[in-house]
Amino acid sequence: MKFDPRLPSPIGFSRWAGKGHSHTPVNEYAERLTRSATPSNSTAEQQAESLISKGGKVTEADVAKVYDALKPLPLPEFLLGSWGGGGFDTGHPGYAGLAEARWAGKDFRGVDDVDPIMVFDDKGERVWNEEWGHASLREMVFRGVTSTAMIYDIKPIFDHFRYVSEDVVMGAMDCPKVFGPELGIFYFYLTKRKDA
Q1: Is the peptide bond before 5 cis (omega within 30 degrees of 0)?
Q2: How confident is the model at residue 184 (pLDDT cuts 50, 70, 90)?
Q3: Model's pTM, two decimal places?
């Protein structure tokens, strides 16, 4: 099965699954969102859930419009725990890069103890990608809104988060020094891992 970074981990990683790992090709989360989200007259949260469940190509402007309408995260501590990750295919190179890395999400053990890039190894195990280092959480202003941001320790990257639900957040990876300012923002989402 081909990796699909839109899907919450571990969906789409069956080819890397080792013994004892069952990875269903069915995106149950996306199916639930499809049934519950109403695009017309919907809230920003419903629109975000619709974008996640729909998948496929989407313009950066459409994702940015939904992201900007979402509420900020209440506190950095909201993110503590283990989260699966998915991306929005706007054509940004971050989308393909995470697919190639077999991105599995992010782990937040504390506000100053974050593994920003978790990936799946060849056995299907979720492991920290050392090349991306660690990160910290802080409140920061991004496009006029103060919310939780993740600051990478060794890379010039800021991930700015917005609230979708108790189990889903949307992120904007602001990294002009990594990809170049002309390529815009990479948008992604995280889903809380229930089994972690």
Answers
A1: no
A2: confident
A3: 0.78
